[in-house]
What we know:
Elements: E1 18-29, E2 34-40, E3 45-51, H1 52-59, H2 61-72, E4 79-88, E5 96-107, H3 121-126, H4 128-131, H5 135-157, E6 161-162, E7 168-169, E8 181-184, E9 187-191, H6 196-206, E10 209-216, E11 229-238, H7 242-263, H8 265-270, H9 275-283, E12 287-290, H10 291-301, H11 320-330, E13 334-337, E14 350-351, E15 354-358, E16 360-365, E17 370-377, H12 382-391, H13 400-404, E18 413-419, H14 420-428
Parallel strand pairs: 3-5, 6-10, 12-13
Antiparallel strand pairs: 1-2, 1-4, 2-3, 4-5, 7-9, 8-9, 10-11, 11-18, 13-16, 14-15, 16-17, 17-18
Helix pairs in contact: 1-2, 5-7, 5-14, 7-9
Bound molecules: 4-amino-1,4-dioxobutan-2-aminium adenosine-5'-monophosphate and magnesium ion.
4-amino-1,4-dioxobutan-2-aminium adenosine-5'-monophosphate is lined by residues 173-174, 194, 196, 217, 219, 226-227, 230, 232, 234, 371-375, 415-419, 421-422.
Amino acid sequence: MSKKTVSIIDVKNHVGEEVTIGAWVANKSGKGKIAFLQLRDGSAFFQGVAFKPNFIEKFGEEEGLAKFDTIKKLSQETSVLVKGIVKEDERSKFGYELDITDIDIIGASTDYPITPKEHGTDFLMDNRHLWLRSRKQMAMMQIRNAIIYATYDFFDQNGFIKFDSPILSGNAAEDSTELFETDYFGNPAFLSQSGQLYLEAGAMALGRVFDFGPVFRAEKSKTRRHLTEFWMMDAEYPFVSHEESLDLQEAYVKALIQGVLDRALHALEVLERDTDLLQKYVSEPFKRISYDEVIDLLQEHEKDADADYEHIERGDDFGSPHETWVSNYFGVPTFVTNYPAAIKAFYMKPVPGNPERVLCADLLAPEGYGEIIGGSMREEDYDALVAKMDELGMDKSEYEFYLDLRKYGSVPHGGFGIGIERMVTFVAGTKHIREAIPFPRMLHRIKP
Length: 448
Ligand code: 4AD
Ligand code: MG
């Protein structure tokens, strides 16, 4: 059989032709003279149909019967090379099916553990290496890929250079309680929580820069939004105002959503995501509101029927019920700006004339997906940054390189970081972050 294969997602370009497809058998049904195979090749799923009389006609009685029998006995996840004629099929969601003319078994599969029946999450997570083959998980990975692709595309088009921050580090980027520590030839080292501090050095060297890589947080949170290892894209840019920074973030998030609509529409359909809603997020402006105004709103509405959050005091950080309520109230992604300095990182620049608040923003996604971006303007003044670090009792000798950036031609600069998995869950419309990364690492999970 010819070895040059066609992807299932591309069969629409081969209607009426005989093609060869390398695939796995996801499921099988039929009776008597007819067999139906659900074929999967990583690009999509579609149905192949084998009709016994056709096989006898083509291969003769003996060989034709043997081939048909092989098809009827195929077990789940057997890998095959299937030859057949592509037909349009209005009845199926996918729109095409394959009239099978020949088949070769490539790899056998016996007792595949994930059967078409329902399985519990723990079982599926234990079999994550196989669960990835299912229709929904495949769609999640395709959406993740489209988001990564759109990230590189957006930054390239906007004059950014990819600047790779280290993963092993001698200091904490965000907060020392969440660090994974490791031994580095007899000295402690930490797994990066964010590339930001190094990226600031990159911005002073190269202008607009971004990084994209795995980051690690020893968070004991057991929520559907937290991983201990996740992928973050950070961007950093000199000579900008806070408003310009928010404009860039908004354009970026819109480009990601549009990128998924353009490159992974089939995956969104598989997940039954409401694409009208995604279109709305692309076309309508995002909301921008300050922390203090949000506190007013939350306090004003706390007795409302739909307000299932607890009373919040000014100065407190939001819990996810507060974030969910606020972003749903506006119905579009919402930037909450100027949080209290006391609940944000040491490097954030105070709001002019209000040292209690900092020039920062969290972007909250609607529909309960929570914070997808954290960003801020950075304190660019050497003396002010030193004073802040002293106030927090930080060891400045650990941050010499960072302070140097304020000594030699410091400029106003800012940036942001997006958790790619949070963005994937939001665009995909899937509530749990564990499905947004191939092999999730969480509080009680590090295998497989
Ligand atoms: O808000 P965070 O902590 O911001 C920073 O790390 C900054 N240094 C970024 C910057 O300004 N360059 O994290 C950024 C984003 C969050 O908005 C969220 O989307 C994601 O990272 N995130 C997580 N995603 C999954 N699991 C976790 N445990 C996460 N913690 C943060
Ligand atoms: Mg944050």
